[in-house]
Amino acid sequence: MAKIAVIGLGYVGLPLAALCAIKEYDVIGLERSPEVVETLKTGKSHIIDHEVELLLKDAHLSGHFFPTTDHAELSACQTYLICVPTPVDENLEPDLEPLLGAIIDIAPHINKGDLIVVESTIFPGTCESIVLPLLEEKTGLSVGNDIHLAHCPERVNPGDSFWTSANIPRVVGATTAEGTKAAAQFYSSILGGEILNVQDIRKSLRPKFSKTEDGYTESQIPLGSVTMMRSIRDAEAVKAMENTVRDVNIAFVNELAKISDALELDVVDVIDGMTTKPFGKGPFFPGVGVGGHCIAVDPEWLKAASMKAGYMPEIIQLSRNTNNGMPAYTIRLLQDALNDRGYPVNGTEIAVLGVAYKKNIDDPRESPFYEVKSQLLAKGAKLKVYDGWVKHENSVDSLEEALSGVKAVLIVTDHDDYITRVKQTNLADLGIEIIIDGRNCLDGEAISEQGITYIGVGRRADLSAR
Ligand SMILES: NC(=O)c1ccc[n+]([C@@H]2O[C@H](COP(=O)([O-])OP(=O)(O)OC[C@H]3O[C@@H](n4cnc5c(N)ncnc54)[C@H](O)[C@@H]3O)[C@@H](O)[C@H]2O)c1
Predict the structure, then answer these.
(1) Cα separation of 424 and 302, whole Å?
(2) Distance from the CA of 10 to the center of ligand 1, in angstroms?
(3) What residue ranges define each of the domains in the chain, with the CATH number in brackets?
(4) This prediction's pTM
(5) pLDDT tens track for 180-212
């Protein structure tokens, strides 16, 4: 079995080190604090957490866990898991000292073929721009050729007896595809779950409901699974963004609490009531805009009531501003893509697919289509509009007519009927040069392979292919 080094034995590193030892890897736990090491050597945990204590007891019994402050003991380790703190300093700037200190400590022991994984939370780009050059400088080895550098952000939830280091699904990315595979295989060996590609999530594993005899079930990402991201930056971004999504949502329910005070409501009762709605809780996806008679309208009602009661809900207003600005943002993506290919918006034929505010319905109320149409017409574009569900805005009678003779296609609504047909059509043969996917519903790489510029909202085929 490979010998593992875990650097930093805190809330993240300690259960991970214990888990590796239980799986019969020899584990050197390198920790700066001598007090922590002394406690761990007796088989006791310096962290009060029932799950960690249980893991540590088994790790101690296994005889495979060796806590130490001496990095000389790292010799002959093949896998290095870095779990040091990544705090912010007094100016709220990332403090990289513990991470860089860990790299400097392990560097003298790293040999060809070793795998180095950063588990600490970092901002997108940290591994490639900061860790990689230091690692190469200190080891004299080439990352990606001689050694692998990967990021596998830890998601353990201290105090949670269900989601533990032993079963929480993980994501992993490295500087090369081989590195990602090596890291995924290692994590799968300790978690026991299957290895997935991020594309599998999109194709079949996004949580969805199915009817059962007793009601319904919601599909889950498999326990202990390891999902391979396309790049190390993507893996870094998963962690930074999933926690920021949480923070923004917590900020928002704090705003709801203030609205509740202004309107004399009990926010906890209201949130409990909200939890009975089984769908619509996420994941959320970006797009060309938010429409319909509910999401685009109801926040305005709540805002109005709150303002009347004396409290201005800033996050609602900011969210409305952001969402209302998405048609203009998407048109800018189109305009830039046309510009790159040497076409003005003025006079260029563009197919706009979709009028309804969401797929597979015939309701156009508050649809982003209207903003898209008026802005593009104001710039002189020649539009071919098609929607098989909402017909009164159509300027052509079929998808085929909409696609013929246009330079660019902008998808506003991802109705299944025509998106299935768009996927089956060779768009390049029709002379189409640009697809702006306002619903991120197409396979960008397949479209790019036809020589077409594919741009989604927050998604570019040329970047995903990195
Ligand atoms: N605590 C959580 O719930 C949690 C969850 C997911 C991810 N994370 C992330 O994991 C990382 C670690 O967090 P934590 O809560 O385990 O921190 P922690 O402070 O509990 O533990 C880190 C340990 O690393 C030691 N250390 C620092 N620098 C070192 C070095 N160069 N060499 C050896 N030991 C060193 C410290 O003495 C400390 O015991 C952070 O990036 C954090 O953001 C934390």
Answers:
(1) 44
(2) 5
(3) 3-236 (3.40.50.720), 326-464 (3.40.50.720)
(4) 0.90
(5) 999 999 999 999 999 999 988 887 777 677 888
